[in-house]
Amino acid sequence: MNEQQQVNEFEADVDEGYVLRLLVTGATPNSSRAIANLKDICETYLKGKYELEIVDVYQQPALAETEQIVALPLLIKKSPYPQKRLIGDMSDIEKVLRGLNLSAK
After folding, report:
1. Greatest Cα-to-Cα distance within the chain, rounded to the nearest angstrom
2. Dist CA 7 CA 37 (whole Å)
3. What is the mean pLDDT of residues 33-42?
4. Mean pLDDT, residues 82-98 taken together
5. How many other β-carbons are positioned within 10 Å of the β-carbon of residue 1?
6. If residue 23 lies in a helix (H) or strand (E), which one and from where to where?
7. Would 105 be classed as within a structural domain?
8. Which domain holds residue 82?
9. Cα separation of 88 and 71, whole Å?
10. For residue 90, what is the domain's CATH number?
11. pLDDT digits (tens, 9 = 90+) for 12-29
């Protein structure tokens, strides 16, 4: 299967909009990679069907506390349900897609 076919199959799985929250620690290299990687994934597989909120826990510590963070960067898929959490720089595309419940048919 070529990359365009894979993208088309992943896009077919997106029925409703995704609400995502990425928690990062300032402008560290790991946080910057996570932001860039996640934006690329969202624009490739969820184009026009997602809302992404990027939260710097240094600037919003109360939000970090309510989310009960164990490690950063942390991606929280708020919807569609079930809610899921992924830790890391989002460089493993297949892992991120599985975490978002997007899978090839």
Report:
1. 45
2. 16
3. 98
4. 95
5. 8
6. strand 18-24
7. no
8. 3-99
9. 8
10. 3.40.30.10
11. 344 579 999 999 999 999
Distance CA 21, CA 29 (A): 19
For the stretch 101-104, contacts whose Cβ atoms lie closer than 8 Å and that sit 24 or more positions apart, written own/partner, are: 101/13, 101/77, 102/10, 102/13, 102/14, 102/45, 102/46, 103/10, 103/13, 104/1, 104/6, 104/9, 104/10
H or E, element range at 75: strand 74-79
**Taking the mean position of all CA atoms in its chain, how far away is CA 39?**
8
User: Each residue of 39-79: pLDDT tens digit?
Assistant: 999 999 999 999 999 999 999 999 888 888 888 999 999 99
Number of domain units in the chain: 1
Q: Is residue 88 part of a domain?
A: yes
Better-scored residue on pLDDT, 91 or 103: 91
